[in-house]
C-alpha cells in the first residue's frame, strides 16, 4: 500500500517539450563533459558557455511549475524520474540500497569497463560484504585515518615539489597522482604512471558506457599491474590494510578508489584557486596553520570546509543516479531516479548559491539542507570522504602556509561577483604571489 507521504510525492508527468529541454540542457552537456573521465576540450567549451547556468535555471522553473513534485520524464521505453526538491533528495539517498539502489543500468555499463565487481554496482547479495571491506580500509567517520601520519609525510614531500612553481593543471595533476599512488599502493608505486594511464584509457571508454566495446586485454593488463602493487602490501599504505582482509574483489574496489581520487584532485585544485582569489579565506586558512607541524596529521577544519564548499560549487558528481528495486511512488521497479546536484547546490533561492562560503560547513547551515550532498548521502555515501578531505586539506595546507597565489588564467573568481556556474579546472593557471 502506498503511504500518505508517497502519495504527496508522486511524480507529475513532464511534457514532451520539458523532457527535451532536460535532455538538451541538463543531460547532454553533463555527458559531453565526461561522467567517468572528464574531457578537457569539452570542459573548456562548457566553461566558456557556462552550461550549468541554464540547466539550473531550467530546473528552478520546473520546480516552481510542478510545485517541487518529482517529474516523470517522457523517455521511450524507460521509466525515469527527476528529483526537484530537497526532501526527495533526502528520501531517495536514504533509501539505498533498497528500494533506491546505487547500482543502475548506466553505472553497470560504464563502471564495468574497469571495475565490474565494484561495490557501487554490486548485486544486493554481494554489496554488504564489499561495503564492509571498503569501510574497514577507508575508515569513514574518522577525520584522521589510522595511517594519517605516513600519509601526512607523503603529502608534505610531494607538495614540496610544487612550492614556488607556476601551477597549471598538468603540473598539479602529476604531483597529485604521485601522492595518490603512494597513499593507496605505497611509495613503490609512486612513479608507475603506466598504471594510472591504463586506468585513464579504460575510464575514457567508460564514458561511452554500453556504446563502447570493453577492452578486456587492457583491463587484464591493468588488473595484473594493480595486483602486483597490492601484493607488496607496503607498510604505510592502504595496500597493507587490504592484505589483512583477504577480500578477493579488492582490485575492483581499489580501481574505484583511484577513480575517485581523480575527482578529489580537481576539487583540491579548484579550492586552491578559490583561496587565491578570496584573501579573507586565505588569511583564515593560514591562521589555522599557525605553528602546525605539517609533517604530522591535523584535522584542519577550515580547510576541509573550503574543499567541501568547492565541491558544492562545482560538484564532481553532477548526476547522482538511483534505480528502484521495487515499485515505488516514482514508478515500477527499474525506474531510474536522477538527482542533478548543481541545481540543489546552486539553486538561485539559496543566499549563498554563487559565492564561496566555507562557514556553511561549520555553522550548521549545510546540515540543515539535505540537498547539499558533495559526497552523496545515506547508506551509499562515499566511504572515502574523510580520507579525501584529509589528503586535500593537507595538500592545501602545505601549499598555502608560506605562499600566496594569484590567478593567471581562467574565469574571474572573486568575492565581489557571482562565481561561475561551470569551472574548467584544466585551463586554470596560478602563479606564486610576492
Explained architecture:
The termini are far apart. A hairpin with a 6-residue loop joins strand 2 and strand 3. The chain is globular. With 434 residues, it is of the alpha+beta class. The protein contains 17 helices and nine strands. Strands 1-2-3-7-6-4 form a six-stranded mixed sheet, with helices on both faces. Strands 5-9-8 form a three-stranded antiparallel sheet. The N terminus is likely disordered.
Radius of gyration: 21 Å
* Distance from first to last alpha carbon: 67 Å
Structural class designation: alpha+beta
Lateral strand order in the biggest sheet: 1-2-3-7-6-4
Low-confidence spans: 1-7
Mean pLDDT: 95
Output the number of helix runs: 17
SSE ordering: HEHHHEEHEHHHEHHHHHHHEEHHEE
Strand content: 5-15%
Roughly what percent helix?
A: 40-55%
Choose one word for the global shape. Answer: globular
Largest sheet: 6 strands, mixed
Oligomer: single chain
Secondary structure: number of strands? 9
Task: Write a brief structural summary.
The chain is an alpha+beta fold and 434 residues long. The chain has helices at residues 4-8, 16-33, 40-49, 52-65, 86-94, 105-111, 127-138, 148-159, 169-185, 193-206, 216-232, 238-243, 250-277, 279-288, 301-313, 341-346, 385-400, and strands at 12-13, 71-73, 80-82, 100-101, 167-168, 319-324, 336-340, 404-409, 429-433.
Amino acid at each position: 500500500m502506498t503511504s500518505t507521504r508517497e502519495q504527496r510525492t508522486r511524480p507529475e508527468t513532464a511534457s514532451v517539450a520539458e523532457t527535451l529541454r532536460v535532455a538538451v540542457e541538463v543531460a547532454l552537456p553533463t555527458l559531453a563533459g565526461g561522467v567517468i573521465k572528464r574531457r578537457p576540450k569539452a570542459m573548456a567549451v562548457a566553461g566558456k558557455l557556462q552550461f550549468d547556468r541554464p540547466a539550473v535555471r531550467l530546473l528552478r522553473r520546473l520546480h516552481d511549475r510542478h510545485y517541487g513534485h518529482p517529474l516523470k520524464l517522457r523517455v521511450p521505453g524507460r521509466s525515469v524520474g527527476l528529483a526537484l526538491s530537497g526532501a526527495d533528495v533526502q528520501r531517495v539517498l536514504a533509501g539505498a540500497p533498497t528500494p533506491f539502489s546505487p547500482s543502475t543500468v548506466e553505472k553497470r555499463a560504464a563502471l564495468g569497463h574497469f571495475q565490474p565487481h565494484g561495490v557501487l554496482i554490486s548485486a544486493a547479495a554481494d554489496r554488504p560484504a564489499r561495503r564492509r571491506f571498503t569501510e574497514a580500509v577507508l575508515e569513514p567517520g574518522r577525520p584522521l585515518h589510522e595511517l594519517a601520519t605516513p600519509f601526512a609525510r607523503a603529502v608534505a614531500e610531494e607538495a614540496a615539489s610544487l612550492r614556488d612553481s607556476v601551477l597549471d593543471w598538468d603540473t598539479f595533476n602529476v604531483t597529485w597522482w604521485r601522492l595518490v599512488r603512494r597513499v593507496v599502493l605505497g611509495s613503490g608505486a609512486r612513479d608507475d604512471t603506466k598504471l594510472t594511464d591504463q586506468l585513464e584509457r579504460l575510464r575514457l571508454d567508460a564514458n561511452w558506457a554500453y556504446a563502447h566495446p570493453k577492452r578486456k586485454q587492457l583491463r587484464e593488463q591493468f588488473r595484473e599491474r594493480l595486483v602486483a602493487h597490492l601484493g607488496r602490501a607496503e607498510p604505510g599504505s592502504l595496500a597493507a590494510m587490504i592484505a589483512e582482509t583477504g577480500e578477493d574483489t579488492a582490485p575492483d574496489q581499489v580501481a574505484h578508489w583511484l577513480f575517485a581520487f581523480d575527482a578529489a584532485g580537481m576539487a583540491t585544485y579548484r579550492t586552491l584557486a578559490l583561496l587565491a582569489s578570496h584573501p579573507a579565506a586565505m588569511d583564515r586558512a593560514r591562521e589555522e596553520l599557525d605553528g602546525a607541524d605539517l609533517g604530522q596529521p591535523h584535522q584542519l577544519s577550515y580547510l576541509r570546509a573550503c574543499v567541501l564548499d568547492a565541491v558544492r560549487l562545482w560538484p564532481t558528481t553532477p548526476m547522482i543516479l538511483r534505480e528502484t528495486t521495487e515499485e515505488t511512488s516514482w514508478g515500477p521497479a527499474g525506474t531510474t531516479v536522477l538527482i542533478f546536484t548543481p541545481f540543489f547546490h546552486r539553486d538561485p533561492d539559496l543566499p549563498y548559491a554563487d559565492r564561496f562560503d566555507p562557514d556553511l560547513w561549520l555553522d550548521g547551515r549545510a546540515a540543515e539542507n539535505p540537498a547539499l550532498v558533495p559526497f552523496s548521502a545515506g547508506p551509499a555515501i562515499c566511504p572515502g570522504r574523510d580520507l579525501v578531505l584529509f589528503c586535500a586539506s593537507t595538500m592545501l595546507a602545505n601549499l598555502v602556509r608560506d605562499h600566496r597565489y594569484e590567478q593567471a588564467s581562467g574565469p574571474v573568481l572573486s568575492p565581489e561577483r557571482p562565481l561561475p556556474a561551470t569551472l574548467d579546472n584544466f585551463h586554470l593557471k596560478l602563479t606564486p604571489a610576492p
